[in-house]
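Follow-up to my earlier ticket, as requested here are the two runs.
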Amino acid sequence: MHNLITLTAQGLVGEGRLQLEELALAFVLSSLVGLEREIR
């Protein structure tokens, strides 16, 4: 039973990590678009 809980916890951490990376990527891309508009 303990193994199941550990695997679930690892899965949740992996999911959260992926979401954080996607959020960071989206933030960087939106920042680049904003900078481009500022320059033009």
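Run two:
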Amino acid sequence: MRKILLSAVFIFFYFNCYAEQNIYSIYMMGTKIGSSTDKWSEKNDPSGNCILTLDSSSEMEINRGEFSIKLKSSSIVRTACKTFTPVDIRSESSEISSTLKATGKNINGTFKAEIEKNGNIETFSYPLKDDVTFFSLILKKIPVQQLIKGGAAKVISEDSLSVKEISYSGILTPSGTTRVTVNYSGVPIVFEILNGVVIKSELQNGLISYVLEGYDTASEKSASAPSKGTDIIESTAIENSGITVKKPRNTVKAVFSFSGKNGMEIPDIPKSCFQKVITEKGSATVTVTSELCRGDKPEKQDTLPNLYEDSNNRNITEAARKVSEGAPDSNEIIKRMVRFVFKHIKDKNYKFGNLSASEVLAKKAGDCTEHSTLLAALLKSLNIPVKMAYGIVLDDQGRFFFHNWNVAFNGTDWIPVDATFGMEKADSSRVVLIFGSGSSRSREDVSLTVLKFMRTIEIVVMGFEYEK
């Protein structure tokens, strides 16, 4: 009898009021790289409250250099049906053997979040206000008329679980769809909506696009199978249309001119003691030197462990202790650590991109991000302030690639260092686009900043000086 009652309660309170499934093909610059599925449903919880659920999953395969990386992600987002007030979220993303898990829950008006990576846990909380909802639900929440009128809103990012500000505007197209452009922290995302369903979305001028099954264009249909030909590293490289620099790793000073393609505005470029920026309408001149400089004082976060730079990991602290033993000062420690990371990572490849420092230490593999993450954790474990620098670097073939290095503090001056190249003092043929750390929020901000520069700018080398 009890089982029958329990079944009856389950059927009554979890009656499926509404269900919808949408399957999308994922393209990168016109080449299919995977697929994504969104499952929408409405159900009443045991208290009789209507809960809207979005269950999403995706699989992608991206070429980075000679390696093919398979990415998987899944998330379950729940909100109140009518108000779209957040209830909770669970998500997981993985590539090869590396996994990132995130959970968040609305507890009496406070959103409590936890993000876990390789045993490292980041927790934070904030009050839910300003009618905030999850980003993936914002187009469900705002009526079409309001989307066309335009406005602004605050949303919770499903990636970092932090609150972001967005703006939006829309138009009705001749084909009867509503085209909405959302500015997400400076990155444009265009959505095509038909009868309340997103049939296409496009990130950063077609860099990444999602197309609902049945709405593929002729060119997209021709790329129906995932391709092995699109390399994200090669595809996002920027040609230097200025002076040729034959030995970019030997420069101690370089001057660059940035301008937007087709009249586009260039994103903000940070200033620092070794990077001077002069901005004019539609362009910027950046002068970079590789000399040590005073600059701003270190911040608290420059010595603290985080999700990726797990400087409190026992293996990290032990490695740092051994490498630094007998070093007379911070300068020597920094040099030793750069040399250690360069030699320790023997398998220099592009197949990772999401490893914590302790994972890098164990695997002895990775690209520029892994080199920089490990170096940052080793230095932090010795209480030496260090920042992650994300930007572009010029190669000897005249192309700029997106790159990651560090800036370390020796007690009086900041030193740009690049463990990927084994450089105890980095060259000047590079430009920092953003300084970051290994927290989830910082990682998302870095990704968004890099996206702003992809396929939108032109760079000219105006002059340089070699080390004498």
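The only thing I checked on run two: DSSP finds ten helices and 26 strands in the chain. Let me know what else you need.
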